[in-house]
Amino acid sequence: MNYSRQREYIKEYLMSTKEHPTAEVIYQNVREEYPKISLGTVYRNLTLLVELGEVKKISTGDGTEHYDADTSAHSHYYCRCCHRIMDVEITPSVDQILAASSTGLGTVEQASLLFTGVCKDCMDNGK
Amino acid sequence: MNYSRQREYIKEYLMSTKEHPTAEVIYQNVREEYPKISLGTVYRNLTLLVELGEVKKISTGDGTEHYDADTSAHSHYYCRCCHRIMDVEITPSVDQILAASSTGLGTVEQASLLFTGVCKDCMDNGK
DNA sequence: ATTATATAGATAATCATTATTGATTTTGCT
DNA sequence: AGCAAAATCAATAATGATTATCTATATAAT
């Protein structure tokens, strides 16, 4: 695989933010540095980065995928109102992963824990 | 909310299967009983059933949502090859849920644990 | 049974994502 | 440095999943 500054910058941007942006949001931000970049390039490179394991894709069921360059073991809190994702310093336990592995279903490459609810901000603004 | 036999049957079908079908698969199956039903009706009712808490939506990031009428506490194993979902009798621990609640991020309505890998069938068929 | 409202069915529209294509950039070699 | 081959880009078209719209039908209450 060849080097690409666009891909480099996409990852840089992802590492610089605590948000868990969608491809569209990433596109808007990367555009400030590379005004000519196209949305397809963002998608292509996000897919590559995910395959390389440098970025994680977070699926919440809200219709778009979110991305996170923090690959350390942590989980996410998803607000079903504002669709934001926050980090939670909780991880699937070793026991849980071992238990899943020993079911014999197949390899366990990833274990992810997602909490869903309504965040404080949304509750304060009545919802 | 009014009663609807179509909605009733969608739930019946979902309860009758161990698969975790997509809207499209549900549509194909419900069509055998209600040949005139339309895909939009399936989506509309799935959304309603999820809102009622009678059905759960499972997001794997494979491009389509899967549905499950088994609302008991359990987790899922997702094969990234064949895109099938299997049940795993492991649940997020009370400790994990309490810990998530006590972060103060917001309410915790749901905690879901997803294991991803390559299932046995796919490995046997070399992939 | 009549009437009001919710849902169905058909279809069009939208939105996210992927594929295609020709131009440009990067790499590896001399 | 200069050049050919391969990879990536930008632009855009295509696809696929999901949602919205609109008229007809089914449901529920009187």
Automatic annotation (TrEMBL), chains A, B:
Gene3D superfamilies found in the cross-reference section: 3.30.1490.190, Winged helix-like DNA-binding domain superfamily/Winged helix DNA-binding domain (1.10.10.10)
InterPro entries (alphabetical): FUR (IPR002481), Fur_C (IPR043135), WH-like_DNA-bd_sf (IPR036388), WH_DNA-bd_sf (IPR036390)
Cofactor or coenzyme needed: Zn(2+)
Coiled coil, from the record: none
GO MF term set: DNA-binding transcription factor activity; transcription cis-regulatory region binding; zinc ion binding
One Pfam short name: FUR
Binding-site residues for Zn(2+), renumbered to this chain: 79, 82, 119, 122
CDD domains with a match to the protein in the record: Fur_like
Domain of life: Bacteria
Keywords, alphabetical: DNA-binding, Metal-binding, Repressor, Transcription, Transcription regulation, Zinc
Cofactor info, note text: Binds 1 zinc ion per subunit.
GO process terms (BP): negative regulation of DNA-templated transcription; regulation of secondary metabolite biosynthetic process
Family: Belongs to the Fur family.
Protein name listed in UniProt: Transcriptional repressor
